[in-house]
Specification:
Length: about 60
């Protein structure tokens, strides 16, 4: 596993470093969601272990 940060300006991104301003992932980062507008709802499936404080989500899996 690689340590990184989940962050958002409009789309949710993951990157190995904290980005600032307009969030554009580095070559090692990636977009986790499509770009959204302020009126779009956003959600994706994720599993949370409250005991371990770990959040796991499959990439590219749409919520229906």
């Amino acid at each position: 596993m690689v340590l990184g940060y989940v962050q958002s300006s409009r789309a949710v991104m993951w990157d190995k470093e904290i980005l600032s301003g307009l969030i554009i992932p580095s070559s090692e980062g990636m977009a986790l969601t499509k770009k959204i507008s302020l009126v779009d709802a956003l959600g994706f499936k994720a599993h949370l272990c409250k005991k371990c404080q770990v959040l796991i989500s499959k990439l590219n899996e749409e919520t229906k």
